[in-house]
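Quick one:
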Amino acid sequence: MAFYWPETTHERKMGWVGVPGPVQPVAFYHHVHVDELHIPCAYCHWTAATSRDANIPPLDVCWGCHKDISITHPEIAKVRQYYLSGTPIPWVRVNQQPEYVHFVHSTHVAADIPCAQCHGDVSKMYQVYAPVEMNMGWCVACHRQRETQFHPKQAAVDCYTCHY
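Output:
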């Protein structure tokens, strides 16, 4: 069942929130990788723990396994074509903050915030979408719920936490 949020905020107007997510050049189903193979998010999105942005996996990560696994699958054939042509897969970013927001993934990973808190359970999404509207009110509410994890407590909801 698909439903759509009304376009009322910056994120919605930019097409960043809602079902379905953007069509990707390779139909990647997280369920197989996350639920069946138990591959952690950090295997493909390793920069989430060390930098501001979580990387979109480069082709070498996909090809590292799929040069030998599921090679007859039509979507893997697309991966092979990208690899043989030396062209990166042009993934379409799903979650994006406006330029005036300085969100840092590594801070949230270090605070043990589960990826699904913001990104939803991607293992259940046939096509990944942004399940929540990550606006200022949503972020501040989450920060207030977790204030005791941050020091000093006031920094968690201070404007300069995200706007600098």
